[in-house]
Amino acid sequence: MALRVIEIVTPRSDKDDVVRSLEEHRTDEGYVFWASPLERGEGISFRMILDVQDTENVLDKFEQLFAWTDKYRIVVYPAEATIPRLDKLASEDKNEFTPAPKESEPKKNRISREELYADVLDTTLLSRNYVILVLLSSLVAIIGLLRGNVAIIIGAMVLAPLLGPNVGLSLATTLGDKKLSMESLKTMTVGIALCFFLAAAAGLLLGIPHVTDELAARSVISYSDIILAIVSGAAGIVTVTQGVPTSLVGVMVALSLLPPLVASGLFFGAGMMPHALGAGMLFLANVICLNLAGVVTFILFGIQPLSWWDKEQAKNGAWRAAILWTLLLAALVVLMVYEGR
């Protein structure tokens, strides 16, 4: 299991209170900690090392104690290893006399809510780099689809600029975070519009002299595509919650958002409307399935706000969103049946 270091910077005058709080919770969570004075000012730094699965429980407790004032700062960063090993330290602690531990919250086999939020936010914010990435990946996908080159298309899939905002929307829905929801929707809308209109312009100017196998494959949608999108979306969210970005590459390839959108734009620009509609339906199915799988997976992994009031609000909103995505998916399936796909 991965390790995390939590650093708490406090005024030296509060040292005794912080030590008492750290000692009080150590028997529940099983971490070790030490303190060192800062070179400048009157601050002192407490560092604790613990398993990543314990991070959110510890952060929640100390956020309630410390985060209400700007005198404190809590920072989380990864640790590669610790010697002696953390389990050995925990077993040594058990040899000492300690009070019977209180019933603690269940361990979470994932990174903390704060780490997850920070990771997702990086791929959700609308920026110049994001716009450039959308344009470049769209051009790569256009070339790959027109040439029927699988390797080029996979390159566009790996760039996957549309994946981040969709994951951000799923997380925002689960946490009831309106600001993140609006930012995700704005970024996703801009990305989709840029990709589609660039592809439509290419279709209008270049035409589609020959419908390659790769283009044809993305002009139709089947029920297996829906199952693949749901499974890949859930796998992608699990990967995100584990903090293993390298594992996300395979999901980017399996859950392709960009190629069907580009194919729809190319067909639209070339005036091939039935093909454009089919590719558009495939893209829409992937978006719906990704968000549905994302919301449900985040709920199952226990992603929720800190306060009980926010938990209730977010829980209701998350289930409403899951029902909405389910209804949209059902409507899409009905449309597929109507068109005989």
From TrEMBL:
KW Membrane (keyword) present: yes
Enumerate the UniProt keywords alphabetically.
Answer: Membrane, Transmembrane, Transmembrane helix
Where are the membrane-spanning stretches? Answer: 130-146, 152-175, 187-208, 220-241, 248-270, 282-306, 318-338
Q: Which InterPro entries match?
A: DUF389 (IPR005240)
Name of the protein described by the UniProt record: TIGR00341 family protein
What is the species listed in this Swiss-Prot or TrEMBL entry?
Pseudodesulfovibrio senegalensis
